[in-house]
Design goal:
This protein is an alpha/beta fold and 581 residues long. 52% of the residues lie in helices and 10% in strands. The protein has a four-stranded antiparallel sheet with strand order 1-2-4-3. Strand 5 (110-114), helix 5 and strand 6 form a beta-alpha-beta unit. The protein is globular and about 90 Å long. The two termini are 33 Å apart. The structure holds arginine. Arginine binds next to strand 10.
Length: 581
């Protein structure tokens, strides 16, 4: 399908032709758009800006199909009003396209995105929420634009901590046996409680029994040497954990495909070579036995340089060795031209050092962009990192369950005619949507307060508000009977219709901005603005009771395009839009 030229692109073009230079165009309160560019041009040509602006106005064919009026404002701005017909016609072109006129990138690249990376044999906590939700939205948005996206769930599935666990399992082989009839969520919970129990038990022995400690250390060596029995035991932990992860991701309504789960262990075979290449090229040097990379601008409080440790003095490989090997894999084997890492901001220094090292080693060239997409912490109402009352980190599932419960209360209050089952179904879509939206509508780097009351509120910048706007819209379309949504460019538009129309036309540009800067909150705030404009339209412009059949059709057309835009936009954020609420 053909992409649609937005109103702003058309006007940009028109003004550029009249001006002979590219103007900067933005939306404005005074008119629909404001162009500035006259000032710069006047300066360059030593002309009077207002006079030049007046000349440009002369040259612009106002009152034509596209532009209804142009006015000079201030020292040389142009205030431009689009014609109603152009708005409706542009929207009709969007409506005729499945993709709402959003173009597919002409030259898509390959992006490898590292997100949703929980750790084996450990609980998923609120920290894993943000990486998963943000990463999932970015995947969807980039894929929608035509990018080839390779997902990598870099789970923590390797390391010395497994020695103790494996050794315990060898000595107590039935500890991970399954109950008879576990399924779905229950299976996930059962898996996690087995892992927790095993972890606690092995820890207790490890701390009190020196001989067990020695056997555990020996196990680490066996694991790293690839001893088959040890690997088989390790695999049981990975499989058990995956049952749990999958149950949580199910609840979160995020798809995790098994083939995309390539954890730290996946790069094990490359570690020795990675170190060798770094050492031979002199990028890394031995320092007190450890293989280190130094940076002029990375120093500790004492002023001493803090190196990136690739291999420890005892020969063990660290987190950095794995990440460097993963870069080699993702560039040389997966042919990525963009590498994204959706990881919390506390790991910023790690990624800075890893990227810099990879550049020095020649694994990251100018053709590849590597980007850490850091995100902030979830805070409690007290402004401190979100904890349970007893001060423990919050389990992610408990948080999700609570959100769904709150959503059920809100839905029950609002729609008393729903059956319990309907309430339960919608509560999932509303509760999980609320959590995702609160996360995605916050600009990435910021910490935010996790406040469920606010998140499931019907008023304000919440997913529930957007979902209600969508459902109300759909109910009008259902009630329209034989009246169909049809665009009528010949009809003048009321102010609320124009405002809604201009916003609907911005969908494609909003998405382009999001995929350029990897900031989903720009899409969230666009959708909120759209839902608000729709609410105003709905209050001011009767749809089913419009004065003429044409007006009704045109308003239904606006409703329909709004619904489709909201649904598509929300879907890209990973949020459901129930047809009825
Ligand atoms: N598993 C890590 C954690 O829970 C996150 C992994 C991030 N990705 C990476 N390539 N280092 O903190």
């Amino acid at each position: 399908m053909a992409s649609v030229n937005s109103l702003s692109a058309s006007i940009q073009q028109r003004v550029a032709d009249a001006l002979g230079a590219d103007p900067l165009l933005r939306r404005s309160d005074r008119a629909d758009f404001q162009a500035n560019g006259v000032l710069g041009l006047a300066k360059r040509n030593k002309a009077n800006p207002r006079e030049l602006a007046a000349q440009v106005v002369e040259a612009l064919p106002a009152g034509d199909e596209l532009i209804a009026a142009v006015e000079v404002s201030g020292p040389g701005f142009l205030n431009i009003t689009v014609s109603d017909a152009a708005i409706t016609r542009t929207l009709a072109a969007r409506a005729a396209d499945d993709r709402l006129g959003v173009p597919v990138k002409p030259e898509p690249g390959t992006t490898v995105i590292d997100y949703a990376q929980p750790n084996v044999a450990k609980e998923m906590h609120v920290g894993h929420l943000r990486s998963s939700v943000i990463g999932d939205a970015l995947v969807k948005i980039l894929e929608f634009e035509g990018e080839t996206v390779i997902r990598r769930h870099h789970i923590g599935d390797w390391g010395t901590q497994f020695g103790m666990l494996i050794q315990y399992l060898v000595e107590h082989p039935h500890e991970l046996d399954h109950g008879a009839s576990e399924a779905g969520e229950e299976a996930g919970e059962a898996s996690m409680s087995r892992l927790n129990r095993l972890y606690k038990a092995s820890r207790t022995v490890f701390d009190s029994d020196e001989e067990f400690k020695t056997r555990s250390r020996k196990r680490v060596v066996d694991l790293q040497a690839g001893d088959p029995e040890t690997l088989a035991m390790w695999q049981r932990f990975v499989d058990e954990s995956k049952i749990y992860f999958n149950s949580v991701y199910d609840k979160l309504d995020i798809e995790i495909r098994d083939e995309d789960v390539v954890g730290e262990s996946g790069y094990n075979d490359m570690l020795v070579e990675t170190c060798k290449l770094l050492e031979e090229s002199g990028v890394a040097v031995r320092s007190n036995g450890a293989l280190c990379v130094f940076f002029d601008d990375v120093k500790g409080k004492d002023g001493e340089p803090v190196p990136l440790i690739v291999q420890k003095a005892d020969g063990g490989f660290g987190y950095a060795a794995t990440d460097l090997s993963a870069i080699r894999d993702r560039t040389a084997d997966l042919h990525a031209d963009t590498l994204l890492y959706v990881v919390d901001s506390r790991q910023a220094l790690h990624f800075k050092m890893v990227f810099e090292t990879a550049k020095r080693a020649g694994w990251l060239t100018d053709e590849v962009t590597a980007l850490h997409i850091p995100f902030g912490t979830l805070l409690g109402k007290d402004g401190k990192p979100y904890k349970t009352r007893s001060g423990e980190t919050f389990r992610l599932v408990d948080l999700l369950d609570e959100a769904v419960e709150r959503a059920a209360t809100v839905i029950r209050e609002k729609s008393s005619e729903l059956t319990d089952e309907e309430v339960a179904d919608r509560a999932k879509e509303v509760g999980i949507g609320a959590i995702k939206y609160a996360d995605l509508s916050t600009s990435l780097g910021r910490d935010y307060v996790f406040d469920l009351d606010r998140m499931v509120s019907l008023n304000g910048d919440t997913s529930v508000y957007l979902q209600y706007a969508y459902a109300r819209n759909r109910s009008i379309l259902r009630k329209a009977g034989d009246a169909k949504p049809v665009a009528h460019p010949e009809l003048p538009l009321a102010p609320a219709e124009r405002a809604l129309g201009l916003l609907l036309d911005e969908f494609a540009e909003t998405l382009a901005g999001v995929s350029e800067t990897y900031e989903p909150h720009k899409l969230a705030s666009y959708l909120y603005a759209l839902a608000s404009a729709y609410t105003t339209f709905f209050d001011q412009c009767p749809v089913l009771k419009a004065e003429t059949p044409e007006l009704r059709e045109n308003r239904l057309f606006l409703c329909d395009l709004t619904a489709r835009t909201l649904r598509q936009g929300m879907a890209l954020l990973g949020i459901r839009t129930p047809e009825r609420l």
